[in-house]
Every structure is written in C-alpha cells, then in structure tokens.
Amino acid sequence: MAKSEFFYLKGSGGMQACDSAEEALAKTVEGGFVWLSYIQPSIEELKILTEELKIHPLSIKDCFDDKQIPKVDNFPDYTHVLFNSFDYTNNELKVEEVNLFLGEKFIVSVGQQPSEKHHLMNQLRPIIEMEMDKVSEGPSYVMHEILDNIVDQKLEAIEAIEDDLIAAEDIMLENSTEFDVGSLQRIRRVLLVLRKSLISEREILVKICRKDSRFIPDAAIYHYSDIYDHLNKFVELTESNRETLTSLIQMNLTLLNNQMSRASNQTNKFVRRLTFITTIFMPLTLLTGIGGMSEYTMATGSSNWRAAYLILLAVMLLIGILNYYGLKWLGRNDEKPD
C-alpha cells in the first residue's frame, strides 16, 4: 500500500507535516528545505519531481527497477543515491531499494518494498525529530540519518546470518547424515547478495567523502565518514562469514566421506567373511562333485560303505580345518607391515 509523507524543515521551527508535495515546496520560499518521502509511489506521483525539482526521467525510472546495484550519480541540480535495505528473517533475505535525491533545498526518499519490521518512515521520523538541531542545518543531514538507519539494519542481518551458521554447525556435528546441505547453499547465496551490495555501498561513501557531491557540505562529511567505517567493518564481517561457510561445507564433506569409508569397511569385512567361508568349502565341494555318492560307493565296495563314509567325512573335516588355519595364517602375514 502506497504511503507518502511530506515535511517542511526550517531551523528551530521543527518538522512540519504537509498535505502534499506542492504545499511543502511552496514553503521553501520562506527558507528551509523539504523532505518528500514516498513509499510505493506511482509514476504519476513522481512527476512533480521532474517538473519542480528538475530530476531527470532516467532517475525516476531507476526508482521502479529493483534489479540495480547501489550507486551514486551526480547531476547539476541534485545527487542521486541508491542504497539497499535488508531484512533477514526465517533464512530469507528481503532487499528493499531506497532511492535518495539530494538537492540544495530538498531531500527525496523513494522506497518500493516496505517491511513491517523495518518500515523506513516508522523508524526515521522519531529519530529525525530528536536530532532537529542537526538535521535542520540542511538536507544532507537528513540523508545521513536515512543512510545511517539503513546501515544499522544491515548489522542485524549479518548477526542473524552468523547465528544461522552457528546453528548449522551444531546440527552438522550432532547428525551429519540428516543435515540439510541446502541450508548452507541458501546462506551462501544470501552472503553473495550482501557482499555485492556492501562493496558497492562502500564505494558510494568513498565518493561522498571525497566531496564528489556539491550538495554535501564539508561539515557533514565527518558524519558520512562514520557510515563508511561501519560499511567497511560489515564487509569484513561478511568475508569472515563466507570463510566460515566454506569451512562448514568442507567439514560436511569430510564427515560424509568418513561415513562412506566406515560403510565401505563394513562391507569389505562382510565380503571377506563370505569369501573366507566359501574358500573353506570349495575343496569339499570339489570332492563331492567329482566322486558323487554312487561313484564313491562303487569305488569302496557296497559292503564297506559305513566305514568308507566315515573316512570320507573325517578327511573332509581335516581338509576344512587345514583350510581354516591356512587362511588365518595367510591373513596374519598379509596384515604385517613390509
């Protein structure tokens, strides 16, 4: 649902809410500046930005393209900053693009996908009202508060990812066979998106801190330097999480290989036992196969069959015992190191 709010700010006069962007802009003839906050606006709603604030149509088009990476563009009448706001909940990363337009007498914020948990206006308005002494100095200070709030939310996402990595490690060590490897792949994709965004946003702060935008005074640069330090730290934390993720993937492969090796060893032992038994009975089977019952009776005489079969059974038992101990002796010799 679209929700837009418009404010006029001037010195000690505080932040005055206006019914429309036209009303807020009309007050700037008395001095001060305006903050126009748009949430899920239509193109028609943003036409006033092109007509009154001379914002380029391509910049307006960027507000409706959710596939862009964070960037900063400097135009003669304004600076366009595109930042990403993150909400990481239930192993899912939601990305909201926030477009900021900074001019001499205006700051415009445009968001497309507000989160109930991290609604931009719900958090920023009380903060800016508390910092009126600072933000009343110009639009660049309002933009600083917006960017600072967005960056603080990124820390929540990074900490939540760290918690998921710790939980995944515990589950993996407890029962690696039932561990869902797909959870690591989901975290990997989240970290890739996070890293790509953070590096691009860090470059934005580098350009701001080196005074590429004429709409940010030198006195405000120190505040933006603090945001740069935070982003630089978050990039390092993200890289650390990626290394941890790689270690977990390798650990999972190692555990699976160990389990496969144990299963293979069990199979080898079972096959070895079967082979051992088969080898013992092979010569006995050969004897019975060659002679057969009738041939053996005829060879020993029909009157001697009782003694002959006892002798045959004794010989077969002896052969089986000799085979058994012979195979045991060969097995012990094979196990000895060279």
Structure notes:
The protein is of the alpha+beta class and 338 residues long. The chain folds into 2 domains: 3-256, CorA soluble domain-like (Beta Polymerase, domain 2), CATH 3.30.460.20; 266-335, no CATH class. The protein has helices at residues 21-26, 47-52, 57-62, 120-130, 132-135, 139-174, 181-209, 218-300, 305-335, and strands at residues 3-9, 15-18, 33-39, 71-74, 79-89, 92-102, 106-111. A hairpin with a 4-residue loop joins strand 4 (71-74) and strand 5. It is rod-shaped, with a radius of gyration of 39 Å. The model has no long low-confidence stretch (mean pLDDT 83).
Task: List the topology elements.
Elements: E1 3-9, E2 15-18, H1 21-26, E3 33-39, H2 47-52, H3 57-62, E4 71-74, E5 79-89, E6 92-102, E7 106-111, H4 120-130, H5 132-135, H6 139-174, H7 181-209, H8 218-300, H9 305-335
Parallel strand pairs: 3-7
Antiparallel strand pairs: 1-2, 1-3, 4-5, 5-6, 6-7
Helix pairs in contact: 4-6, 6-7, 6-8, 7-8, 8-9
